[in-house]
Amino acid sequence: MKGSLWLEAEGPSFPRLDGDVTADVAVLGGGIAGVTAAWQLHQAGARVVLIDANRIGHGVTGHTTAKVSSQHGFKYAELRDQHGPEAAAAYGGANEAALEWIADHAGEHSDFRRRTSYAYVTEGRERAVDEARAAASAGLPATFVEDVPLPYEVAGAVRFDDQAEFHPLKYLYGLVRELPEVYEHTHAVQVGEAVRTPGGNLRAEHTIVATHFPFPDRSLAFARAHPQRSYAIVCRIAGEPPDGMFLSADSPTRSVRAVGDRLLVGGEGHRTVTGGDTEERYAALEAFAREHWDGQAVEHRWSSQDNVTVDGLPLVGPMTPFEEHVFVATGFAKWGMTGGTAAGLLLADFVLGRENPYADLFDPNRLNLRVAGPKLVRDNAVTGARFVADRVRHPGRRPIEDLAPGEGDIVRLDGEKVAGYRDEDGTLHAVTPVCTHLGCQVNFNRAERSWDCPCHGSRFTVDGEVLQGPAVHRLELKPT
Ligand code: FES
After folding, report:
1. How remote is the CA of residue 392 from the centroid of ligand 1, in Å?
2. Which of 19, 297, 307, 436 has the most other CB atoms within 10 Å of its CB?
3. Is residue 317 in contact with ligand 1, taking CB distance under 6 Å?
4. Which residues are CB-contacts of 25 (< 8 A; sequence separation ≥ 6)?
5. What are phi and psi of 454, to 5 degrees?
6. Is residue 153 classed exposed, middle or buried when 0-12, 13-18 and 19+ CB atoms within 10 A define those classes?
7. What is the pLDDT of residues 70-79, one digit of tens each?
8. Phi-psi region of 212 (alpha: psi -120 to 50; beta: other; left: phi over 0)
9. What is the tens place of the pLDDT at every residue in 99-119?
10. Model pTM score
11. What digits encode the pLDDT tens for the residues 84-96?
12. Are 99 and 69 in contact (CB under 8 A)?
């Protein structure tokens, strides 16, 4: 079984940073937000250095369903009700502008094509009517429809015209090839007067932190956003894939689009703090494809995590009110293709001292306690409960030798609790089970063979390397 389809694209590779460099702008994170900001700043004449802890585009951007759309489920009624109609219109405007920016820069190489997007419900037609009204009032190309080109009944849907889909990595590689100074496998360990990396320091007047969860997190984003994990499969089907892009706005969430003559199905989203078995999540998507499209062999599957903020709006701008030269971008709630692009453009404007109409809406230092307060308390209570519960539920009493090939668990090694894994060859791997971010206990992800932290979404390899932050430091390897 192959992983993300998008990561199969041939892309450029870049060296590790080795030595000290200076720049006008340091950009941390080679996903769509960081690359867009870097490209825009480079075009404006700034000397930009972009670093990525892993490979360009191999994080959240490489694990998306790659819909380029301002239709983010039933978002506009929610924004209208929580933040008012102006905020809904501004959010829509930012995402439509990002869509058009992508269209202008997609070129021939990125499989960009216009598609109609539908968000539907299978019951509760009135919700769709209300969402269509809210989205149209916010200036989006939205209409309520009852006919949707899907092989099952829906109660109603909101149709957005002139949306798009693309190949996110081919797109990103097109932009990044135009950047003069890019380093991969270069992770920042400190952002202060300089950005410190193991291979050298990066001195810059401005620093953009576009690392999914901000590192460092002086904005305390981890307390105002929680990671959600979702899953995707690509399979062959008996007939033609449906004509358009589709998303269910009721439960269970299903996201559907074509990739050539194959079908991409996404969904099964959940908070990382309320995990469950990853294999079962994939099986549910496969069963859905089989039921409605005679889905056959699954060729690719992958999962991803993205951050959802308590007030439903991304956090993009100065990291704190006291740091005018360090910027963050996070909280795209799985809509990072347009959300990340809008963020990149906004951060470039911040650095260049230009006005941007969306700066206030996405301000990371906003305080809207009426909207966010109760949810903030609830979200952090759930995370706090998990901090304790995992230690009780998984005390790690089994000896590591008990692990079967392919199995990972919290176990004992020489009397010490460890996160243990036995690979298919029988070799044992053991690391400390405590996440290096804020100390939650990690869980084994059976489908991806990784150690995942339920609290704020850090992920580690079975040998403890950081796959995804906010953790910066690896889990300590234990000799087996
Ligand atoms: Fe925050 Fe692990 S990601 S404690």
Report:
1. 17
2. 307
3. no
4. 38, 41, 46, 47, 48, 49, 204, 205, 206, 207, 208, 351
5. -70, -20
6. exposed
7. 999 999 999 9
8. left
9. 999 999 999 999 999 999 999
10. 0.87
11. 999 999 999 999 9
12. yes
